[in-house]
Design a protein that fits this description.
Length: 265
Amino acid sequence: MIDHTRRPGQGTFSPAPGAAPLHRMVAAQASMELRILLRNGEQLLLTMVIPVLLLVGFSLTSVMDIGEGSRVGFLAPGVLALAVMSTAFTGQAIGTGFERRYGVLKRLGATPLSRFGLLAAKTAAVLVVEVIQIAVLCGVALSLGWRPAAGAAGLAYAALLILLATAAFSALALLMAGTLRAEATLAGANLVYVVLLGLGGVLFPTDRFPEPVQAVVQALPITALTEGLRSVLTEGAAPALLPALTLAAWAAIAAALASRYFRWE
């Protein structure tokens, strides 16, 4: 028999309307973003295959003069930085740009998920992919003769740089994808990838640029990440404050701009 004396709020299946906690929304969105990233063959080519080919090709040949020392020792940190940028910025900007064009972001905008929550979810998904990238690239570099010189402090510093760079590149990606048309984002993200590949110290030292250019290049996030990783992983130097501060500044400014100007449609 049905107990008609019970009040509506006392039922076992009483509704509880309202948004889920932010961490649960971010976790659910990050899980979906990760599945999308892993299913996208073009992005996997950009984020995994190209860095591996650059590492192997330029380590085994002397096409480019990188100065004295081990070729793979110089190239490995730069290629790691390139992999982070390709995943956190290039691939994410292009993917998000077309999600916005096709109305996916418009539907997300109707949910309680905030711009900050979307940024956090996409960054978390990118970090998972980066772990896979770093494992593969380090394995390839070690097989080519790379012997990292970093101790525990150096490895912790490298992890910090990668986290800061991921936050900065992810915010820049969402800023671009949330303000430009999808076609412009596609062209712009690929152009930035090529330009920073040449200017960021990935394949050759930045001290070969003219001094006025060096001042600009040193302020780039890819340069801060590349040289910070190279200093501790290859040269065994003590962690430096400037690369971390540079990446933190880029992350803070880009995140603030993305939160302010990102449009769902």
